[in-house]
Every structure is written in C-alpha cells, then in structure tokens.
Amino acid sequence: MLTSLFKIEDEFHDLQDRLVLWRRLLVRQWGFQRRVLFLLVSIQKKLDETGRHLEPAESPFHLKQCADQIDFMELEAQLKDETNRRAVIAQLQNIGGADPKDAVRKILKRMMSNQLMASMNLKGKDSKSAFDSTLLFAVLKEAVIKRHDVMETDILMVTASCLKNAPDRSGGGGRHK
C-alpha cells in the first residue's frame, strides 16, 4: 500500500513537472507569436511609408490615377505649370521598374486607368485620342530617360503596346468591332 502511495505521489510530481514544462512552452510560443505579429505590423508600416516616399507631403503635386478624359484633361492643365511638371517627373522616376519597359508600364498603370488607356493610342487614329502629343507623355519620357539609359523610340514602342493592349485588360472595356 505504501509503495502504491509513493507511485501515485511520484506520478503526481511528474504530472506537475510536465504541467510546468507545458506552461513554459506555451509562454514561449505566445511570446514568439507576439513577436511575429509585431514584426508583421512594423513591415506593414514600412511598406506604407515606402509608398509615401513617392509623394512627399511638401510636394506641390500629388499623383493620382486618371479614371477618365476629364481627369486626364485636369492633369494636363496642371502639368502646364513647371513646378508641377518637375514634381511629377521626380515622383515618376521613383516608381522605378526593372528595365525601361517595366518602368513605362508601371508609370502608365499608376497614372491612367485601363479604361482611359483603351480610349487612346499613340497617334490618335480610329477616333481615339493621341497620347504622343500630351504633356503626360512628355513627362513620362523624361522620367524614364532620366532613370534608365534608353532611347525615345523604345519608350514609344512600349507605350504604343501598352495602349494597344489596354482594352484586353481588366477594366479596359474590351474590343469594339
């Protein structure tokens, strides 16, 4: 009887030790989870700040995507001001891209909706607006040339391709026959 009582007491102490170990493990795991969540939140804040670096608060001009021709005409009017034009060029350079082709695509996507791009082509043929004669195109060229060592004809070709394929992308409205 006494031996069985000692066995029970040993098992009880063993269970208590296990419980202490489990508590320590849970506390460590909870600490790890808190640390991971903290790091995720700080990464998200850094990503948000990165986006803001493209448009400094003191900048005279803030980029926004043009959804339609009215927005585009307003942007064109704002680009007539040299200060705004310089600010936009600096901001577009920061959008970056792996190569000139990628930079042109990113800038067009950032500045114009697919619906607006679908209503334009480079030369203004087939009842579409001409993009090559706009101030935005001049600003785009200058930003890409400053960021990458590229010729203007390469920018023209990539821009033409982006505008040509805009109706096929989401929000582009599709092809009209």
From TrEMBL:
Residues 69-134 form the DUF4806 domain. Pfam families: DUF4806. InterPro entries: DUF4806 (IPR032071). It comes from the Eukaryota. This is DUF4806 domain-containing protein. It comes from Capitella teleta (Polychaete worm).
